[in-house]
Write a structure and sequence with these properties.
With 191 residues, this protein is of the alpha/beta class. It contains 4 helices and 8 strands. The protein has a single domain, classed as Double Stranded RNA Binding Domain. It is elongated, with a radius of gyration of 22 Å.
Length: 191
C-alpha cells in the first residue's frame, strides 16, 4: 500500500512539473504623436504612471463553446505607455526631472479587446481609457482619454490583427492627448 501511495504521489508531482501550454502574447508598441515644434522651453515635470486595470491581459478571445483565452503583451503596458507619453511631452519642449514640483500622472484604467471568432469570421471590439493628472503646487487638472475601435474580418483573428487593433486604439488615445489644447495650455501656464 505504501509503495502504491509513493508511486501515485510521484506521478502526480511529475504531472504538475510538466510544461504547461504557453499563453499567447502580442507586441504592444504604442507610437507617440510627436510635436513638430516646441510649445515651451525646458519646463520640467516629474512623470509617474500606474496600471489600475483589474486584469493584466489585453485581449479575450472567445472561440465559442465556453472557450475564452486571455492574451497578454510581451512588453509591460505601463512602461510602454509611460515611454510614449514621455516622448510626446519632450517633443513639445517639456523636460522630465525627478526633483520637479510639477507632476504628470498616468493611470491606465482600461485596455482590452474582446475577440469573437470562428473559422469563417472574426469581430474585435477594443476599449481604452487613460486618466492623466497634471498637478502643480497651485492645483491640478484631471483629464480622461478614451479610445474605441471595432473591426470585423473574414476567417479567425490572427495575433497580428489583434496586435494591430490594440496599438491603433492606444495610438488614438495618445494622439488625442498630444493635441489636447486645454492640457497644453494648463501645463504651459502653470508648469
Amino acid at each position: 500500500m505504501r509503495k502504491l501511495f509513493i508511486a501515485a504521489s510521484l506521478t502526480l508531482l511529475a504531472a504538475c512539473a510538466s510544461p504547461q501550454p504557453e499563453q499567447p502574447q502580442i507586441n504592444f508598441i504604442p507610437s507617440p504623436t510627436l510635436s513638430p515644434q516646441k510649445i515651451v522651453d525646458n519646463v520640467s515635470f516629474a512623470l509617474e504612471s500606474k496600471d489600475v486595470r483589474s486584469a493584466q491581459y489585453v485581449a479575450l478571445i472567445d472561440s465559442g463553446h465556453n472557450n475564452i483565452q486571455p492574451v497578454h503583451t510581451r512588453q509591460n503596458v505601463r512602461i510602454s505607455l509611460e515611454s510614449a507619453v514621455f516622448d510626446q511631452l519632450t517633443s513639445q519642449g517639456f523636460q522630465v526631472s525627478v526633483n520637479s514640483e510639477n507632476t504628470v500622472s498616468l493611470e491606465i484604467m482600461e485596455l482590452l479587446i474582446n475577440v469573437q471568432h470562428s473559422v469563417m469570421q472574426n469581430e474585435m471590439t477594443a476599449h481604452g481609457v487613460i486618466k492623466l493628472t497634471a498637478e502643480t503646487p497651485a492645483g491640478k487638472m484631471v483629464k480622461t482619454y478614451r479610445g474605441k475601435a471595432h473591426r470585423t474580418g473574414a476567417f479567425s483573428a490572427s495575433d497580428e490583427s489583434i496586435e494591430e487593433v490594440l496599438n491603433d486604439v492606444t495610438n488614438l488615445i495618445l494622439k488625442e492627448m498630444a493635441n489636447d489644447q486645454e492640457l497644453q495650455g494648463y501645463m504651459k501656464e502653470r508648469f
